[in-house]
Write a structure and sequence with these properties.
Helix content is about 45%, strand content about 10%. The protein has about 775 residues and is α/β, with parallel strands linked by helices. It has an eight-stranded parallel beta sheet with strand order 1-10-9-8-7-6-5-2. Strands 15-17-18-19-20 form a five-stranded parallel beta sheet. A hairpin with a 6-residue loop joins β3 (about 110-115) and β4 (about 120-125). α12 packs across α14 (about 350-365), α23 (about 570-590) runs parallel beside α24 (about 615-630) and α24 packs parallel to α25. The longest helix is centred in the last third of the chain and has 24 residues, at about 735-760. It is globular and about 80 Å long. The structure holds glutamine and zinc ion. Glutamine (GLN) binds near residues 486, 492 and 553.
Length: about 775
């Protein structure tokens, strides 16, 4: 008989209980014991939710991050975070965020980065050639015992050793892979202890297997998985976020007891594994989408699963594709979505229920769950044919797309001159990325308006006052190209999604982003259309206040897509083009309203890059096409900017060039060296503003720092194509920081400008 399990469950709690408990502990408002009790309660609830599954996962709970948990387990929290005599949990929080609950001096927080291609951030393990590992299994094993005492059949979850080393930093890949022999005996020791506790299965997460791996990692995999499966409980190797079919010969050689594959992201590998994976080993199929919120097509799944089940019987397991960490907890606590939309969704809890229906159908025949299957079919049919999802006018617009101009009239050099004639810009033009500090006052006004406590006229008046203040400050600073400051925007995606048809907003669909932080991505469920302008009135008002050129600010289609839950009933590329059409309409309206410059932010473009290089071209081609569709309908004299939150675009430079923005601003202040490397080898042909003020740090940049960065940039980028701007938006900073930092930026730009005028040969 088929078994069902899951790879991990959200630990933040349906009401974000863990978030509130953590933050209260860190503020010193509650005791450690209270925090530990909340953790225990959440684990208990989560195990209760999966009581009807065949195995209960242990080890997927975390007080901050599962990768940092591994660093604790293997005794490699950075030395700076460890205090003699301190509780391990406090060392752990110091490693994560620089400080725990104590008031003592903080330390440097751990570096955070995205977990594969998700929006979850993990704390990067810090290794060096002399890293020494020590098994610290107490907290982990305590959870195993805790589950056993509650009567659960434990499947212990661990990050596999190769993925763990792969995710760290300190040394190159080979140096990190070379640490494996030090780590393996500890894994063996822990596996032995799990076996002694009577644990039947261990799940080894090795998502690194779905990436493009250097040989050193393959050697590490062979080494690890030739010995680990024999060391303790039966071992299920779990892979997700992509396919591993091309490595089947190698993986089949490892003496594993089971293999989990992602049947949602890489459905094509199912038939292969069904054919090649030995019948006496478990094949776990991740058939329920662990990355998205839509209800599954259970009947279609059964069509595919029944023949595999007939062959494999109890050696077939079913699960979500990956950990459910990436979806919200429970649809039942959701009050923001209407009943119809809700009926199309499945959050983590509902996904477990879907598994149960599948299992029952396979065990006892579809008739045993006829009602549940019918309900699922019906919801799906309703979604497929819903007029809320399908808008004929959007489909028609997409069909007509080819008739729209998606290329600027003239090449960059000619445009640049026309733009210069329209509003002469000096050498080293200064500007910002868009947002200015989101003060308490701004947030208060927005929330009063949301709650209906002030009317729209009053809200508009107050926001205009904020814009006026922001514009006046920029004029005083002497910036060359101004922005309105984005006071009206809570978030650069949500703001636009609220205007667009095809998006819905949940009340509780929180997903952990990092530590105690959660995000509530908009739900893109239907054809996207822009019923009315979204930003024009604010931008126009801002322009009316100044003679300087004002920049209209928009979020680009790829970023809107990457930071939402996206419909799964059509290719993402199609949805992206729909978003592009909506942004295009806004761009043209801004242009018609007289804005001479329009910036389209693609903050999330690079982070959305697929894990495998072979998938890059399709993604990048779509991203470039979407940007072109959004941006290139304008006249030559309208200047298009884009902004991206990174500097490492060496390997996607061709696509960035193909986007053909007149100006690109990027984040570089913190990585001056990287900037230099990129521009030594690559030629970016249009204007570029490498960020010279690191807005992520509270420190103020000095004249010397900014000047040094600009001079460094100037050695690679001709002065007449170099812009001067911060790294990113200023919304998280405070005015008292922003004003002096921007004053410095303007002062240095002016100095270089004068120098260039006096000694043109040096430019
Ligand atoms: N225009 C946005 C801002 O300034 C860009 C934010 C971002 O790149 N993440 O806030
Ligand atoms: Zn940015």
């Amino acid at each position: 008989m088929v078994s069902i399990h899951h790879l991990g469950f959200p630990r933040i709690g349906a009401q974000r209980e863990l978030k509130f408990a953590l933050e209260s502990y860190w503020r010193g408002e509650s005791e450690r014991a209270q925090l530990l009790a909340v953790g225990a309660r959440l684990r208990q609830q989560n195990w209760q939710r999966q009581a009807d599954l065949d195995l209960q996962s242990v080890g997927d709970f975390s007080f901050y991050d599962q990768v940092l948990d591994a660093s604790l387990l293997w005794g490699v929290l950075p030395a700076r975070a460890r205090r003699p005599g301190a509780h391990l949990l406090d060392d752990y929080f110091r490693a994560a965020r620089g400080r725990s609950a104590d008031l003592a001096e903080g330390v440097a927080a751990g570096q955070m980065t995205k977990w594969f291609d998700t929006n979850y951030h993990y704390i990067v393990p810090e290794f060096s050639a002399d890293s020494e590992f020590h098994l610290q299994p107490d907290l982990y094993l305590a959870q195993v015992r805790e589950a056993q005492q509650q009567g659960h059949r434990v499947k212990a979850v661990l990050i596999g050793p190769v993925t763990y080393l792969y995710l760290g930093r300190g040394g190159d890949a080979a140096a990190r892979a070379a640490l494996l022999p030090r780590l393996l005996p500890l894994y063996q020791d822990l596996l032995r202890q799990l076996q002694e506790l009577g644990v039947a299965w261990v799940q080894m997460d090795e998502p690194a297997l779905v990436t493009d791996l250097e040989d050193c990692w393959w050697r590490a995999y062979d080494q690890a998985y030739s010995v680990l499966p024999a060391a303790g409980p039966q071992m299920l190797l779990s892979t997700y976020f992509g396919g591993v079919g091309e490595h089947y010969q190698r993986i089949c050689r490892w003496p594993l007891h089971g293999l989990h594959i992602d049947a949602v992201r890489a459905p094509e590998q199912v038939a292969l594994w069904a054919a090649v994976w030995p019948k006496d080993r478990v094949l776990s199929l991740g058939v329920i989408d662990g990355r998205n919120i839509w209800r599954s097509d259970l009947s279609a799944l059964l069509d595919r699963l029944e023949p595999i089940h007939a062959e494999r019987g109890e050696r077939l397991w079913l699960a979500p594709s990956c950990s459910l960490l990436h979806v919200p907890v429970d649809l039942r606590s959701e009050s923001g979505l209407d009943p119809e939309l809700k009926s199309w969704c499945a959050f983590a809890q509902e996904k477990l229920e879907e598994l149960q229906i599948l299992a029952q159908a396979l065990r006892s025949g579809r008739a045993a769950v006829a009602a549940q299957l019918a309900a699922a079919d019906q919801a799906l049919a309703a979604r497929r044919s819903s007029p809320r999802v399908h808008d004929a006018s959007v489909a028609a617009a997409l069909r007509e797309m080819a008739t729209l101009r998606q290329q600027r009239h003239s090449p960059f050099a000619a445009r640049s001159q026309l733009q210069q004639a329209r509003w002469p810009r000096p050498l080293y033009p200064t500007t910002t990325i868009g947002s200015f500090p989101q003060t308490e006052e701004i947030r208060a006004v927005r929330s009063l308006h949301r709650r209906g406590e002030i009317d729209t006229a009053e809200y508009t008046r107050q926001m205009q006052a904020q814009i006026a203040h922001c514009v006046a400050e920029q004029e005083k600073l002497g910036l060359d190209i101004l922005v309105h400051g984005e006071a009206e925007r809570n978030d650069m995606v949500e703001y636009f999604a609220e205007f667009l048809q095809g998006f819905a907003f949940s009340s509780h669909a929180w997903v952990q982003s990092y530590g105690s932080r959660c995000v509530k991505p908009p739900i893109l469920f239907g054809d996207v259309r822009r019923p009315a302008p979204m930003t024009v009135a604010w931008a126009q008002y801002a322009q009316s206040l100044t003679d300087k050129p004002m920049k209209g600010m928009l979020t680009g289609p790829v970023t809107l897509l990457n930071w939402s839950f996206v419909r799964d009933d059509q290719p993402r590329a199609t949805t992206c083009l729909q978003l592009a059409l909506a942004v295009r309409a806004e761009v043209l309206d801004l242009e018609a309203a007289g804005l001479p410059i329009i910036q389209i932010d693609e903050a999330a473009l690079r982070e959305g890059l697929p894990l495998r290089r072979k998938d890059w071209p399709a993604y990048l081609d779509n991203a470039v096409a979407a940007f072109a569709l959004a941006a290139h309908g304008v006249d030559d004299a309208t200047q298009i900017h884009t902004h991206m939150c990174y500097s490492e675009f060496g390997d996607i430079m061709e696509s960035i060039i193909a986007m053909d923005a007149d100006v690109i601003t990027i984040e570089t202040a913190r990585s001056a060296m990287q900037l230099l490397d990129a521009f030594d080898t690559l030629h970016y042909p249009n204007d570029i503003g490498p960020g010279v003020y690191d807005i992520h740090a509270p420190n103020l940049p000095s004249d010397e720092q900014i000047e040094e960065l600009l001079r460094a940039a100037g050695r690679r980028i001709p002065a007449d194509r170099l812009w001067v701007n911060p790294d990113c938006g200023l919304k998280t900073r405070r005015w008292p920081e922003v004003l002096p930092a921007l004053a410095t930026l303007v002062r240095v730009a002016r100095r270089l400008r004068q120098e260039a005028v006096a000694q043109p040969a040096l430019v």
